Each structure stands twice: as structure tokens, then as C-alpha cells.
């Protein structure tokens, strides 16, 4: 089980449903939500020296106000060298455009791409990959 899972998405109905899915699947002890990439980056920047406050996985929407998913990835790229432990990022989108998938996977920061609405099996698979990457505690 992940210690902290971060969801960055501005769709309140989707995040409500996603929270229920995450709780039902028992994949994270704590879930933190941000409605835009700026708030998420502010959180990461303010906790970058405290690994226990950083998420192990970020579920990142593409289309959001203030700082969208692409802009978040650019900002995260600048922060990544200062982060004490790896943070996996999984892009989420209702877009089935191949260009979005290719751009996300080619960013160097995204480990997977989930199609909305997110289902439990692929979400569990992503979580298991993150946990196996992190290794035993």
C-alpha cells in the first residue's frame, strides 16, 4: 500500500469517484488532492526536504486551470533533482489522442497513462509497479 497518493485534477465529480475507488481498492493510506498543478507544485516545493510528506505516486490530469498537466511536468522536471525519493507520475485523461499519450510517455517523467474513467484493475497495476520500483521498506 502506498503511504501517500496525490491526485491533481480539477473535476470535483471525478475526484470524488476516484477517492471512492482508491479507498475501495485499498491502495493508499493517505490521499491528497489538488485542483491544479500550481497548488500541487507549491506542496511539493514546500515539502521537498521531507520524504515522509511526499507522495509516492501522483495521478495527474492534463487539462486544468492555472497550471495544466504539461506545465506541471515542466515544473516538476526542475524540482526533481532536489527531491529525496522518487515520485512516480501517472497521467490521466479522457483524451484518447495518441499525441497526448506519446507526449506524456516521452516526457521522461511519466510512468504510465490511464484513460478516464479510471478503473480499479489498471490503477492497482500502476500502484503495484510503483511499490515494486520502490522496493521493500
Side-by-side strand order of the widest sheet:
2-1-3-4-5
Average pLDDT, to the nearest integer? 93
Kindly report the CATH topology: Rossmann fold
Termini separation:
11 Å
> What fraction strand?
15-25%
Please compute the radius of gyration using only Cα atoms.
14 Å
Secondary-structure class: alpha/beta
- H/I helix tally: 5
**Overall spatial form:** globular
What is the C-level CATH assignment?
Alpha Beta
Number of strands: 5
CATH homologous superfamily heading = Response regulator
Helix content: 40-55%
Helix and strand run: EHEHEHEHEH
Number of domain units: 1
The largest sheet is: 5 strands, parallel
The assigned CATH architecture is: 3-Layer(aba) Sandwich
Q: Low-confidence stretches at least 5 residues in length (pLDDT < 50)?
A: none
Give a structural overview.
Strand 4 (88-93), helix 4 (98-105) and strand 5 form a beta-alpha-beta unit. The termini are close together. The protein has helices at residues 12-25, 37-46, 69-79, 98-105, 120-134; strands at 2-8, 28-34, 57-61, 88-93, 110-115. The chain has 137 residues and is an alpha/beta fold. Strands 2-1-3-4-5 form a five-stranded parallel β-sheet, with helices on both faces. It has a single domain (2-134), classed as 3-Layer(aba) Sandwich (Rossmann fold), CATH 3.40.50.
